[in-house]
Structure formats: structure tokens, C-alpha cells
Design goal:
This protein is α+β, with helices and mostly antiparallel strands. The chain has 14 helices and 22 strands. A five-stranded parallel sheet has the order 3-2-1-4-5, sandwiched between helices. Strand 7 and strand 8 form a beta hairpin. The structure holds adenosine monophosphate and glycine. Adenosine monophosphate (AMP) binds near residues 118, 192 and 271.
């Protein structure tokens, strides 16, 4: 069996590693992959922004199953095109992926189907958005409609900031492209949880929940990043709360997508704010989270390949998932300057020594190999994951491994999991 994974970050490294653990012993190809992925899978060059190029790889590789990591190929319609050709692919169609690719669609969808989310107004002109501000307290959240790789959400403390954000989004000053639709939204407070569920279009099966750390600085300060670390514990959500979220958010979303003739097959990522009045959806993603996947999949004991096939063949409700009890933590090492500009090509040392720490997996996010030497090749460079009987154990192992790794300008947060550790005291 040959499995093709599309993407080339830490998430795809973790996907390739979990797929390789399958008892079906599949051959794994990753397009384009990265330096670390090349150690466990064959990497095939590909341009992820180009549907024709991705289809070229599919035609050349002729995989038995394809798994799509990032959102961009989904938004280009890769799944639609592969299905048209009768090929097996895990991921949502372009229309189903609109839960992620259009915030205006997602908000209206949640409103239509009574899925708990922050109050909002979808505005199609600057004038309309400025007028809508009067309905909200500050801080207020201003969001670009389309995919913006995390840069399209602005939390505005004052009216001036909000007006500036609205003007910047519609004019194009802020993101380089001018928005035709902007969401003005109530600012929610609480802890964020990433609740991911697999779906076959009808049934939703939750994965273990995770908590991401989006800010660059310790104590959750400074600019937003793609994620600086994440952890999972068996106590993150109690069984009743997990059941509530599954019923009122994940399963309800899957039912409603089917009802609207855009059944969602793939992984539905529900980004939740746990507010004082209950969980509310901040956002949906139509794919695995990064770095959530790097902390979630090392705890999966059952066969991921079987789970993907069950999703494609609409028999997920019969599929059993087993998880290693305890906790996991993934700490991300980034390049100096990230999420702003950063240099690349710095030699990385200590990877082998770090890999010898028990219960540790090192996932490469942005690395390349030159002359047998790993070098930095991105903003986020590595994700060091460890599992353990509890969070402290997992964190100790992850940080011990991280301490053995170095490259010029290496930056990582030393406080991953701080909210959970604080609660324990
Ligand atoms: P999104 O791109 O929608 O996931 O938003 C990115 C991040 O912005 C979220 O993970 C939250 O930290 C924050 N955010 C988004 N919407 C809200 C909101 N309504 N209230 C507070 N924070 C928000
Ligand atoms: N960890 C956030 C995301 O994958 O979007």
C-alpha cells in the first residue's frame, strides 16, 4: 500500500510517522516533505500552491490513499479533482473546506444551525463595518474573511484601533490584498481548546483535545505565531464537557454540512473559547492543527490508516480509537525574529542526542539537509514532542531533549503547559 501525504511541515512529519506505525506497513511518500520527513518517507518535490503540479505528483505516484495536510490545497479543490478521477483521498472538498476558508461563511453557518459562537456582523463595505462597531463593546475583534495564515484576526482595544483595522482590511494596506468582506465580532474571554474530530460525512469521532500556545512570548505575550507549543492531558476536559462539545459543536456541524449538501469528510478542527457561560467556537479549520497534531498523534495507539479509510468509506462509527493514557507536550524551536523576518541555513546540532531521550519524538517543521547536515529552513524549525504519565513528566522529557539541540538564534518557550500546571497547584 502506498500513501501520499501532501505538505511539508511538522504536522506532516507527525502524520507520516503515525502512518508508518500502521500494521499495514505502507510505503509513505510526502510532497514536498522536508529534511526531517526525508528520514522516514520518500519526499517528492511539489508546489503546494499549484493544483496542476499536485495532480502531476498524484499521477506519477499513483498512491492508494492520499492525505492532505494544509488548507491551501483544499481551497484549490485538490480533493474535488482527485475524487472526480476516482482516487481515494482524505480531506474535505473545496465547498466543505469553506468552514475554514471563509469566516463569513462559517459565522453565518453557525448562526443558521445554532452552533455557539461570538456575536458578529458580516460587513461587505467599510461604511457598513464602521456602523456595525456601535453594536459591540471593546475590545472588539475584526477578521478578514479569507485565508490569511493567522494574520487576518485583529483584537482591537479601542475604537480608533478598530476603525484603523477596518480601513486597512478593505483598502488592502494591512494584508496586501483588499478584503471584500470583513467580520466584526464580540471579543470572548477564557481558555482556548483545540477540539479535533474525524468525520466520514455523517459521524464525528473526537481526537484527544489539545491546548495550543499561539503567542511568541512566555506567559502568552507578544505577536501571534503559527503555534509555539501544545500539550494534551487526560484531564483537559471532563467527560461531560467533552460530550457536550461533541454533540453541540462537532456532530452538529457534521450533520448541518450534510444537510446543506456539502458533507464534510476529513478532520474538523474546532477552535473553542471556554467562556464563563460555556464553550464557543472561535474558528473552524478543515484540517489537522499544527502543532496540535504533533502532540495528539504520538498518543494514538490504534491504526491511523484504518481511521482514514473508515472516513472515506463512511464507516467511522464502527471504528475504534485507542489512546495512550497520560499526557503529551510539543515544544517548538523557532528562528530568531519569527514571526517577523528571520534568517535560514543555520546548522542544527544535537538532534541525535535529543532523539535518545526516552519517549521523545522530534518533528521537523522547517529544516533542509545540506551535505549531510541539517540546517534551518523556516520560521518554525522543530517540534520536540514527549509523552508521559502526566504533563510534568512529558514536559520534563521534551525540555531535556530540547536542551540537547542548538542552532544560532534558536528561540523556544519554556512555559508550555503553564495554565494546566498552575491549576494543579
Ligand atoms: P482565528 O484565525 O479565527 O482562529 O483566530 C485566531 C486567534 O484569534 C484565536 O485563536 C484567538 O486567540 C483569537 N480570536 C479569534 N476570535 C476571537 C474572539 N471572538 N474573541 C477573542 N479572541 C479571538
Ligand atoms: N494551531 C493552529 C492551527 O493549526 O491553525
Amino acid at each position: 500500500m502506498k500513501i501520499l501525504v501532501i505538505g511539508g511541515g511538522g504536522r506532516e512529519h507527525a502524520l507520516c510517522a503515525a502512518i508508518r506505525r500502521s500494521p499495514r506497513a505502507p510505503e509513505v511518500v510526502c510532497a514536498p516533505g522536508n529534511g526531517g520527513i526525508a528520514q522516514i518517507a520518500r519526499c517528492a518535490p511539489a508546489n503546494q500552491k499549484d493544483l496542476n503540479d499536485l495532480m502531476r505528483v498524484v499521477s506519477e505516484e499513483r498512491p492508494d490513499l492520499t492525505v492532505v495536510g494544509p488548507e491551501l490545497p483544499l481551497s484549490l479543490g485538490l480533493v474535488d479533482e482527485m475524487r472526480r478521477r476516482g482516487l481515494k483521498v482524505f480531506g474535505p472538498t473545496r465547498d466543505a473546506a469553506m468552514l475554514e476558508t471563509s469566516k463569513a461563511f462559517a459565522k453565518r453557518f453557525m448562526q443558521r444551525h445554532s452552533i455557539p459562537t461570538a456575536n458578529f456582523a458580516v460587513c461587505t463595505s467599510q461604511q457598513e463595518a464602521m456602523a456595525a462597531l456601535a453594536m459591540f463593546h471593546h475590545p472588539v475583534v475584526i477578521k478578514a474573511d479569507g485565508l490569511q495564515a493567522g494574520k487576518g484576526v485583529l483584537i482591537c482595544e479601542k475604537k480608533d484601533d478598530a476603525e484603523h483595522a477596518i480601513e486597512g482590511l478593505f483598502s488592502g494596506h494591512l494584508l496586501g490584498t483588499s478584503e471584500t468582506s470583513v467580520v466584526v465580532e464580540e471579543c470572548l474571554r477564557g481558555e482556548e481548546i483545540s477540539f479535533l474530530a474525524l468525520s466520514d460525512g455523517k459521524h464525528a469521532t473526537p481526537l484527544i483535545p489539545a491546548q495550543d500556545h499561539k503567542r511568541i512570548g512566555e506567559g502568552d505575550t507578544g505577536p501571534n505565531t503559527g503555534g509555539m507549543g501544545v500539550y494534551t492531558t487526560d484531564t483537559m476536559l471532563d467527560a461531560r464537557m467533552a460530550e457536550w462539545i461533541l454533540e453541540h459543536v462537532a456532530q452538529r456541524t457534521i450533520n448541518a454540512m450534510a444537510l446543506e449538501d456539502t458533507p464534510f469528510v476529513g478532520v474538523l478542527y474546532c477552535g473553542l473559547m471556554m467562556t464563563a457561560t460555556g464553550p464557543m467556537v472561535l474558528e473552524f479549520n478543515a484540517r489537522f492543527g499544527d502543532p496540535e497534531t504533533q502532540a495528539i498523534l504520538p498518543r494514538l495507539e490504534s491504526d491511523l490508516v484504518e481511521a482514514f479509510e473508515a472516513c472515506i468509506e463512511e464507516r467511522l462509527s464502527e471504528t475504534e480509537f485507542r489512546w495512550k493514557p497520560g499526557a503529551s507536550a510539543c515544544v517548538v524551536a523557532a528562528s530568531q525574529g519569527y514571526p517577523g523576518s528571520f534568517g535560514t541555513g543555520k546548522p542544527i546540532s544535537g538532534l541525535e542526542e535529543a532523539g535518545r531521550v526516552p519517549n521523545v519524538e522530534i518533528y521537523h517543521a522547517g529544516t533542509a539537509v545540506e551535505g549531510g547536515q541539517f540546517r534551518t529552513a523556516g520560521g518554525r524549525v522543530l517540534g520536540v514532542t514527549a509523552t508521559g504519565a502526566n504533563l510534568s513528566e512529558a514536559l520534563d522529557s521534551a525540555y531535556e531533549a530540547m536542551g540537547r539541540i542548538s542552532f544560532e538564534g534558536m528561540v523556544y518557550r519554556k512555559d508550555i503547559g503553564w495554565r494546566a500546571l498552575k491549576k494543579k497547584q
